[in-house]
Design goal:
Blueprint: H1 7-29, E1 37-42, H2 52-57, E2 61-66, E3 71-75, E4 79-86, E5 89-96, E6 100-105, E7 110-113, H3 118-124, E8 136-137
Antiparallel strand pairs: 1-2, 1-6, 3-4, 4-5, 6-7, 7-8
Length: 156
Amino acid sequence: MAKGINYRQLMHKAFRQVMVDVLAQVAREGLPGQHHFFITFDTTHPGVDMPGHLRARYPEEMTIVLQEWFEDLAVMKDRFSVTLSFGNVPESVVVPFDAVKTFVDPSVEIGFKFEEVAEEAEARKAPDAPAPEPAAPLAPASGAAEVVSLDKFRKH
């Protein structure tokens, strides 16, 4: 019998799939309207492929922007690749989806913060590193979030 339902892990998986689906749509159809993305990823994650000079400049984390100019966006099962301009020089990067830390589309005030799930973290973390938290959506920039108590809906 199962110990319970791991909602955090399920939400993590669902948010990551939203990002994958959005990137796949953009790879097929291009960026619609004012949409653009800020994607932050762990440059030390296995499978990240980027030029050495960029890795030296961003030894732990890097944020890329998919907006005005990018080419060759390709979405695979476990990663994406894209060519971006760095100092007017086109460079390709390959990013496993598990390396992505945040995915934000400021044009519609939506974003996701990804943390490693327990199994990934256990395999990669240092012995004294704190346990990571699961994925959670970023709060809207407008600050319109509200905490609602469920007590008023319960029958006493």
